[in-house]
Amino acid sequence: MPGIASAGAACKDVGMSKKAERLVLAGLLQKLAPRLGAKVVLESGWKIAGQITFPDRGGKRGNKSYFRYNTLDLNPVGASDIAKDKDYANFFMRKMGYPTVPGRAFYSDDWCETIGSRRNNAAAYRYARKLGFPVIVKPNEGSHGAGVFLVNDKREFMRAMRHIFKGDRVALVQRVVRGRDYRIVVLDRQVISAYERIPLSVVGDGRSSIKELLKRRQKRFRAASRDTRIRLDDIRIAHKLGVQKLALRSVPERGKQVFLLDNANLSSGGDAVDVTKPIHPEFKKIAVELTRDMGLRLCGVDLMVAGDIRQAPKKYRVLEVNAAPGLDHYVKQGRAQQKTVENLYLKVLKSLAR
Fold first, then answer.
1. Cα–Cα distance, 228 to 254 (Å, whole number)
2. Which InterPro entries does the entry link to (predicted)?
3. What is the pLDDT along the chain (354 residues), one digit of tens a residue?
4. Do 179 and 306 contact (CB within 8 A), yes or no?
5. Residue range(s) of every CATH 3.30.1490.20 domain in the chain
């Protein structure tokens, strides 16, 4: 199913607990480190930050490396900070000739007053009208796809901006770009993972409400040990349903697929289709070069592709780059995919050990 441009905000907005994040990365690193003769020490509070000590080699003291949430210290601090700031990252990617999503950053009224800027809500709305509705509105920083809105008119636009400015003082207004949403993960100039991202949806059975279907979907996530938590009070779900003239109490007809979000992030309930093997070599080259040009060693490159990533590039846009890409998207699919995740993180550990 075609998607639209996506981005994010804080973990708490998608109902993910700190405990859930710890179980993914910290648990895997603790399990895998002994294979390299390394050990992992977690801080004793939330257990979301840790130290990895690698063994001594050739008379040289082993490296020490650190992680917090999904962030490992493979990447330089400056490059990581630029990647985290979507507006800055887009500026540099455009300067280097990469096709990014047309858009601009605007600031909350309070922040405009502080820094003496006129790029406030009113200016943002004028820019949105210039782009032409619908447009994408999203926070400038963050992850997991929280706070991303597809808005169709002034009322929806202002509502989305108010929501974003509750937790972020910078918002992006972007043109809608359509196509298939892919993430390509690069580690030390090698593509180690690629997958298509499909937004959260439910399929009607003719009897159950959307709320009931969502609850069942959450149960399936839990049974598969997937840490995604669907919030039924998520403003983005209400917004998406409202655009379709639906509500949580609506009962879709049998076989009808109803999409609940505009973004395709896995942490907010989306699905992944692995394309690591069939991805076209040119797309691999694009992802590797962009990762290098952004000064990163580990990077998730998000692309919106008009067509199929298995075929040579014709038209695509870079949605964003992520300096701390979670590699756990396969876990939900079963034990065989758990092995895939372990192999990916083993590669990361080997890179950290160098």
1. 26
2. ATP-grasp (IPR011761), ATP-grasp_RimK-type (IPR013651), ATP_grasp_subdomain_1 (IPR013815), Dala_Dala_lig_C (IPR011095)
3. 445 443 333 333 333 344 444 457 888 899 999 999 999 999 988 888 999 999 998 778 889 999 998 889 999 999 999 999 999 999 999 999 999 999 999 999 999 999 999 999 999 999 999 999 999 999 999 666 678 899 999 999 999 999 999 989 999 999 999 999 999 999 999 999 999 988 889 999 999 999 999 999 988 877 766 667 788 888 889 989 998 999 999 999 999 999 998 877 777 777 888 999 999 999 999 999 999 999 999 999 999 999 999 999 999 999 999 999 877 655 545 455 677 888 889 999 999 988
4. yes
5. 102-176
